[in-house]
Amino acid sequence: MVGLATGAMAADRPVVVDYQESRIKTDVKAAVGSFVGYLARYDVTVGFDGAAPQVTSAALAFRFTDMKTGEDKRDKNLHDWQETEKFPDGRFKLSEGGAGPAGGYVATGSLTFHGVTQPVQFPVQVTTEGEVIIIDGEVVIDTQKFGLPIIRLFFALKVNPEVTVFFHLQGRLGSAGA
């Protein structure tokens, strides 16, 4: 069984993330014109105790300019709404992990964006295939909790402030102490 834990352990090894196989995307629902955004670039660090086996640490850093929806006008509107020039960066840091439902795990940490840090908790599946580590999960973020207004168009159409973030991180165990 593979899990999540917190705190650095002597057996920690870094996971060397394969960014070609990994992805982070957002699913935004609207009355009309729902869309998906993808983070084109981001930095992830993951510590893994192969003896346990379990994730012992995780952190994500990204720039909002790297969020792409495939439509330039929508990207500009997204960045205006999020005030990307004023708040260019986002980050997540795992604080703890524990057993969750259906053989999965629950990750707890803090998410910072739009200048606001909020606690988040979400289910995660961690699997290993030899030296390959795969971490999958999703979290629903209420953008209002980060001080962002609900987007309304033409007084009737609105964008749901709850955005689902999906992630698939894949990598290989690196050398201990690397």
Q: Would you kindly provide a written description of the structure presented here, covering whatever features stand out?
A:
There is one protein chain. The chain is mostly beta strands and 178 residues long. It has one domain: Lipocalin (Beta Barrel), CATH 2.40.128. Helices cover 6% and strands 56% of the residues. It contains one helix and 14 strands. The protein has one helix spanning 72-82; strands at residues 3-4, 12-17, 23-28, 35-39, 43-49, 54-63, 67-68, 89-99, 105-113, 116-129, 132-142, 152-153, 157-158, 162-173. The strands form two sheets. An eight-stranded antiparallel beta barrel has the order 2-5-6-8-9-10-11-14. A two-stranded antiparallel sheet has the order 12-13. The longest helix is centred in the middle third of the chain and has 11 residues, at 72-82. The model has no long low-confidence stretch (mean pLDDT 89).
List strands and helices in order, with pairings:
Layout lengths: L2 E2 L7 E6 L5 E6 L6 E5 L3 E7 L4 E10 L3 E2 L3 H11 L6 E11 L5 E9 L2 E14 L2 E11 L9 E2 L3 E2 L3 E12 L5
Strand order of the largest sheet: 2-5-6-8-9-10-11-14
Computed Rg: 17 Å
H/E topology pattern? EEEEEEEHEEEEEEE
The shape is elongated
- Span of the ends, CA to CA: 25 Å
CATH class: Mainly Beta
Structural class: mainly beta
How many helices? The count is 1
Beta percentage is over 45%
Total beta-strand segments: 14
Portion in helices = under 10%
CATH architecture: Beta Barrel
Say which CATH homologous superfamily is assigned: Lipid/polyisoprenoid-binding, YceI-like
